[in-house]
Amino acid sequence: MSPPPPIPRVRFVRKDRDRVMQVVALLLGDSFITDFWTTYRLPFQRYVTITYPPSVEHPQQHIGVVAHEMIHVRQFARFGAPLVIILLAGVLPLPLLFSGRWFIERSAYLEDIRARRMTIEHAVDVLWRRYGFAWPKALMRRWFRARLG
User: Fold this and answer.
1) How far apart are CA 81 and CA 89, in angstroms?
2) How far apart are CA 11 and CA 29, in angstroms?
């Protein structure tokens, strides 16, 4: 088994100052800027960007959220990952209910549950409400319980 790829450099940018996030907000609305942290890496970039809401003064002080986002940083470390993640987030398998977002977010939320920053029920609720009904609730609960069990 090959070793995991090295973790790329990470930069923190206030979300309303990030051009990529401004473009995405045109599609998703202002709450995308004000309510969410987002991690991304464009193809061929050597660094990963973690964007945070304008209300956050010192992002590194939000240890739990940064730990969650670092799961995504590791996901972006693989070559080709930006394209795969774009496909999962926006296209495959469906934008709603059986969303590819589930495959991106589940490991990060599992870490939140393990670190006791969230319960299974809270994680399922967030994934359901804030990620376009990412996956059926019963299947999300079952996945989390199987990995915690």
Assistant:
1) 12
2) 24
